[in-house]
């Protein structure tokens, strides 16, 4: 299944020194892709922990019960790292935010990292709340954005983290979501320009353009069914239609026409590399996101298959690399497929469902997975040079050491 250009390693590989940034069009461009990073112990939802899991045995039993409820085969079960939360008085799943932030910083000491992309769910569990949870959003932004990433990219001129919003960022209210956007818009480290925007990172000299869209708002304006699995991992058909909160639904013509904006913006771009960043993936492997993905493929693939060189997503707390056939979307059986970099493990871990994975591969011939790994913390590094992209998947151990470990690499060409 793997092309000859794909390599799988099990240990940390020697890292090559990054070449100096140059202005010629064949100079290397490098960046980090991460997502779902905002899990912080200071902002837990107390409603979820009314009965604290006071022992590791209780924590383990609860995790196994959740896995059984999701029809995960017992033989594939893995325990997540645990943390005893003193305020809750029990064990919770450990956060990898600080460890991943340190691992990204360490990796970028040797690899070229001129910018980063953040694929949403930047604040768990309910985004900024405008005080609804009794917490100050200013302090929340400092704890979740400023402190963990203070050293990340600090030695690279014009370094920015280009962010999208995810579903958790919208959980409380539109006011809360817009408060986060306002903070990131004025941040010296992060970048947003509304909930959808286009931007060319300065260090890329116009060779890269990023198109950020808000797939939570987009999906809220469309009919999306709830994702449910049968015990054998197959999809339950004709499930109820999901009912999004009113404040997430498109609020104006610009939001309602976001897909058309993306098409027009990408058509007008002169960049060599056109990258789309969004929260929701087109494919994933845990079994809980496939209905959203189905709708997004229908809406976005005609544009993505015509213009995009890669689609970067999160939402699933895993590390995955996929390709989607563009034959149906373009009417051309020889159309170049669309690569997807799913990097959603920057703070949380999620198990994959092998039965669902097998069902998905069998049912959807247009789908081609290259790499899928759950129950890890991780991120991706992307190197662009000439017409080739190389994606390196990195994990970091559960011991919270922040050591970057190269796990997989994948290469593809840009769209002609």
UniProtKB/TrEMBL annotation:
Region (Disordered): 397-416
Keyword Ubl conjugation: no
InterPro entries: Calcineurin-like_PHP, Metallo-depent_PP-like, Metallophosphoesterase_PAP
GO terms, molecular function: hydrolase activity
Domain (Calcineurin-like phosphoesterase) ranges: 119-318
Superkingdom of origin organism: Bacteria
Keywords from the UniProt entry: Hydrolase, Signal
Signal sequence interval, chain numbering: 1-22
Name of the protein: Metallophosphoesterase
Native source species: Gimibacter soli
């Amino acid at each position: 299944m793997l092309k000859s250009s794909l390599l799988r390693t099990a240990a940390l590989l020697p890292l090559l020194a990054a070449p100096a940034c140059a202005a010629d069009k064949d100079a290397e461009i490098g960046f980090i892709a991460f997502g779902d990073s905002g899990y912080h112990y200071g902002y837990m939802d107390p409603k979820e922990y009314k009965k604290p899991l006071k022992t590791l045995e209780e924590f383990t039993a609860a995790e196994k019960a959740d896995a059984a409820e999701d029809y995960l085969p017992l033989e594939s079960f893995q325990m997540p790292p645990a943390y005893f939360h003193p305020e809750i008085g029990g064990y919770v799943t450990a956060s990898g935010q600080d460890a991943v932030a340190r691992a990204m910083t360490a990796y970028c000491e040797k690899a070229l990292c001129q910018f980063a992309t953040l694929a949403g769910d930047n604040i768990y569990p309910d985004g900024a709340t405008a005080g609804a949870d009794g917490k100050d959003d200013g302090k929340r932004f400092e704890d979740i954005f400023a402190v963990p990433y203070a050293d990340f990219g600090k030695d690279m001129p014009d370094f920015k983290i280009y962010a999208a919003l995810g579903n958790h960022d919208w959980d409380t209210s539109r006011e809360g979501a817009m408060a986060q956007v306002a903070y990131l818009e004025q941040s010296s480290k992060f970048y947003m320009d509304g909930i959808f925007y286009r931007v060319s990172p300065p260090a890329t000299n116009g060779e890269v353009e990023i198109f950020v869209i808000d797939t939570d708002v987009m999906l809220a304006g469309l009919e999306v069914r709830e994702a449910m699995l049968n015990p054998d991992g197959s999809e339950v058909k004709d499930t109820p239609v999901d009912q999004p909160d009113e404040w997430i639904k498109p609020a104006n013509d610009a939001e309602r026409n976001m897909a058309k904006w993306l098409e027009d913006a990408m058509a007008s771009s002169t960049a060599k590399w056109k990258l789309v960043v969004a929260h929701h993936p087109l494919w994933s492997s845990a079994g809980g996101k496939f209905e959203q993905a189905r709708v997004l493929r229908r809406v976005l693939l005609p544009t993505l298959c015509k213009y995009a060189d890669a689609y970067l997503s999160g939402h699933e707390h895993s590390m995955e690399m996929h390709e989607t056939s563009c034959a149906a979307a373009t009417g051309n059986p020889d159309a170049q497929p669309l690569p997807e970099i799913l990097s959603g493990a920057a703070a949380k871990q999620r198990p994959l469902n092998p039965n669902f994975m097998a069902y998905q591969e069998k049912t959807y011939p247009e789908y081609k997975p290259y790499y899928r790994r759950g129950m890890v913390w991780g991120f991706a590094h992307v190197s662009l040079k000439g017409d080739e992209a190389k994606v390196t998947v990195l994990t970091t151990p559960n011991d919270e050491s922040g050591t970057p470990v190269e796990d997989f690499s994948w290469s593809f060409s840009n769209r002609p």
